[in-house]
Amino acid sequence: MNKNKKYRNYLPLIITISLVAGIVLGTFYAGYFRSNRLSIFSHTNNKINDLLFTIEDRYADTVNIDDLVEKSLPRILSELDPHSTYTSAKKVEEEMMELKGSFSGIGIIFSIIQDTARVVRVVEGGPSEDVGLMAGDRIVKVDGKSFIGDFLNEEYATKTLRGPKDSSVKLGILRVGEKGIKTYEITRGAVPVKTIDAYAMLNKNTGYIHISSFGENTYAELLVALTDLNNSGCRNLILDLRDNGGGYMNTAIQVANEFLPEKQLIVYTEGRKSERMEYFSDGRGNYKKIPLVVIVNENSASASEILAAAIQDNDRGTIVGLRTFGKGLVQEPIQFADGSLLKLTIARYYSPSGRCLQKPFVRGETENYQNDIYSRYVNGEFSTQDSIHLSGKKYHTKLGRVVYGGGGVTPDIFIAADTSDITSYFMEAFTSKRLIEFAYNFTDTHRKALSDLSDWKEIDKYLNKQKIVDKFVTYAESKGQKRRNLLIKKSYQRLYKTLVSTIINNVLGNKDAVLFQCQSDKNILKALSIIEEGQTFPKPITNTSTDKPKKKNKGK
Hints:
The structure is a single chain. About 40% of the residues lie in helices and about 20% in strands. By secondary structure, it is of the alpha+beta class. The strands form five sheets. Strands 3, 4, 5, 6, 7 and 8 form a six-stranded antiparallel sheet that branches. A hairpin with a 4-residue loop joins strand 10 and strand 11. Helix 17 packs antiparallel against helix 18 (about 510-520).
């Protein structure tokens, strides 16, 4: 009895000691395992900090440590993959403006010609239109400072003319036919950026839409375009994704959803630390049965490939053109306190058939990766389908058609790139920007006549009568480019199309320029042929056990 009483007297002390011991042991082991798990980060972080401190403390010359860090971060990320990137705070807004759907500026399209920023076109409804700026104006001063000279380039001019919303800028303008410098004070405002830069009816029942990127407003723009085309009698659709470098994955999923029946897998993503995420169509799209052709090329990447692969793997339409870029990595944006941005690859995305479209790369070796498109050209891939080199791993669409992984989307119908008329004369005219300069000068001196023309067809007829190529050749010769008659003859049509499309763009905008180019585009013509022949929907493969059809038994 006394023994039990004595035990009860010490019980609170025993409990207290046990609790303290538990806390101490728990803290020790938690710290032990935590330090083990984070030791690599702590050790590396200390090493980097020590290195930077040592450089700042003991290096022979003065060093800007912040600048050193900014330059080092991209090098570190390049050891991971080609698409994990770092963007400084200064460039984040510039990179994101197209995807966001607008930027803050004065609302003009300009070109630098002979050291002067010249207004090519005033954006309709923008700040510059409100104050009376006109196409053809020369910007010679900005906020009282000279804006003419060798220092002037497109990057500098863009940075100067853009700025925070509601901020003001004073422009000194020279206008043809008027004396002296006119001063305009412009309040910067939102300038819309369209990701669907052209759509129209190509004939009485076939519509055409070109998507330049996948931004926040792309799906809304698509619905407007589809509604307008539908009201114009659209019964077939050509979707052009050429030179579309991608954008938001979710936007591509929204667009795909518009064309796919219910419960069709669009894409799935998976990574070492990212669970598999699957994205299916919900069946609410209004264009699930419209005959569809999708055009792609070597610059169609990322979100463009998601859309093209979803259409191909679900046998929903026909893919036409050249093999796409081959980007199958998913980046997560992570913003730092100073506004800079890290885009870190966290997963790969896979098409419905299970193929990853990412082309091969070696960590830390970006040069070959960046030169891949040129290598394809040299190897003949743009001229013959047999030159396409893939991983060899085969996958199958819903209908059993064979598709390949490991390097972009290979089109169902290959269309060779038309490079036969690209000569050294054309390349010199193009790279020297003489074509652009001449087109601007011609537009400027014929502005009254051109402004009276209502569409690209009328401008085409007008320029054809003007013998525009002959006039350009004379202009180029005056600028030091040697006249080479045989090469000019070979490149005549390409020179004509380039000049005409540039002038149409100067006068009417990109939409009309694209529609002019469509008239002789081999990809467009093939797409129209496929639609006319009723071949947009792929046919089922009856024999899926082999890629080769079975031999027919000979009759007796």
